[in-house]
Amino acid sequence: MIPFLMISCAYGFFFLVRAAGRFRQWISLALLSSAFVFSAFYLESYFFLSPFRIGTSMFAGMRELVDRSVSISREFPVVRVGRSISEPHIFFAFYQALDPRQYQQASRNWLVFEDKGLKFLDQYDGYSLGKFRFGDLKNSEPVSQPTLYIGRAEDFPSDYPYYFRLDSLNGQPEYQVSRRDPS
Question: What transmembrane ranges does the database entry give (predicted)?
Fold first, then answer.
């Protein structure tokens, strides 16, 4: 549909300029000026405004989150990653450059989500990739060993202590990495 509309508009503009007679130069100048102004607004929106508006949905900061979390996770026997990060196992596999054979081996155990009547893997609570456990954070429950929690900032109470937070481009807390020790 869009190509048809574009071709129709181009034909209409061509016909308008051709039929304009002595106003041809003014109409051509007005059309070119309009195209320039609209292009400038589009480019400004694309390069300057879009990162602030859609950065969260485009997972801005995910590489930094994974890199920093993996380096901290070496100190922890248990690492829990919240399901509020959509399909988090993909990011951890990709940014750690995980061997595909290791990923395939781990993913064989994930198929139980279908047996539980779930449609998507990230609905399943408790699938793992190495020591990373994906699902509900359960950060309010007691733990038996030091545990690292990785999730969106809204998954944690505002006074929950953290290693680091990553903010979105508009300055709002986006991701948080916290720890919990046995009581």
Answer: 29-49
Classify residue 48 as exposed, middle or buried by CB count within 10 Å of its CB (0-12, 13-18, 19+).
Answer: exposed
Q: What is the pTM assigned to this prediction?
A: 0.72
**Residue where a domain terminates, one of 16, 31, 53:** 53
15 and 105 both lie in a single domain: no
Q: Give residue 141's domain range.
A: 62-180
- 132, 168: one domain: yes
Residue 147 CB neighbours (<10 A): 22
Q: Do 39 and 71 share a domain, yes or no?
A: no
Do residues 154 and 77 both lie within one domain? yes
User: What is the DSSP code string of 46-62?
Assistant: IIIIHHHHHTTTTTTTH
pLDDT per residue, tens digit, the chain (183 aa), is 788 988 998 888 888 878 877 787 888 888 889 889 999 999 998 888 776 676 566 677 789 999 999 999 999 998 999 988 888 999 999 999 999 999 999 988 888 888 888 888 888 888 888 889 999 898 888 889 999 999 998 999 888 888 899 888 778 888 999 998 887
